[in-house]
Amino acid sequence: MEMNPGEPDDALLARAARELMAHDPEPRWVDVSNSVLARVRATTRRTWPVDAAFPGESAVERPDTLRISDHIVRTTLRRALLGVHGAEPIAIDLQLDGHTCIGAAITVTGVYGTDLHAVGRELGDLAHSALTGLLGLPIADAAVTVHFEDITDA
User: Fold this and answer.
1) Rounded CA gap, 114 and 121, in Å?
2) Mind listing the pLDDT tens digit for each residue in 15-64?
């Protein structure tokens, strides 16, 4: 809606503006907002940069570096594993050599009555594909392990 001087809403807006200018700002608001910001900054999680390769980059020529947060790597793995029937990931530990991911240990809860060997193989394959797809670096198949910590009724 376009505002033109002299319209009936003009007086209402002018009165609202006068009241807002006359109103004292809440002095505690600054204290509260600073407190909230301090708490948010205090609860940030530290991340570790994990080496990755640019898509399409050759192994011979690496002029730039690309690193991805370990939280992003874990989240990507968790999302890749969520669709597998018969297991739910409860912990994902990256195995790092400095900043290079050399494997992952995945702890899951299995469902009673499922073929845990088949589910474990599927989880391992999915995790391996997700890691190599995200990071673009080779990871040995045996470097991704799946451990069933608990079995539930479903």
Assistant:
1) 13
2) 777 776 676 666 655 556 667 667 766 666 788 999 998 877 655 665 67
Q: Work out whether strand 87-97 and strand 66-69 pair parallel, antiparallel, or are unpaired.
A: unpaired
Global pTM reads: 0.67
Q: Which CATH number fits domain 47-152: 2.40.110.10, 3.30.70.1350, 2.40.100.20, 3.40.50.300?
A: 3.30.70.1350
Distance of alpha carbon 45 from the chain centroid: 11
Q: Distance between CA 99 and CA 42 in Å, rounded?
A: 25
Among the listed residues 104, 124, 113, the one whose alpha carbon sits nearest the alpha carbon of residue 86: 113
H-only helix segments in 2-143: 9-22, 27-42, 70-81, 116-135
Q: How far apart are CA 74 and CA 48, in angstroms?
A: 11
Structure tokens at 106: 């995945």
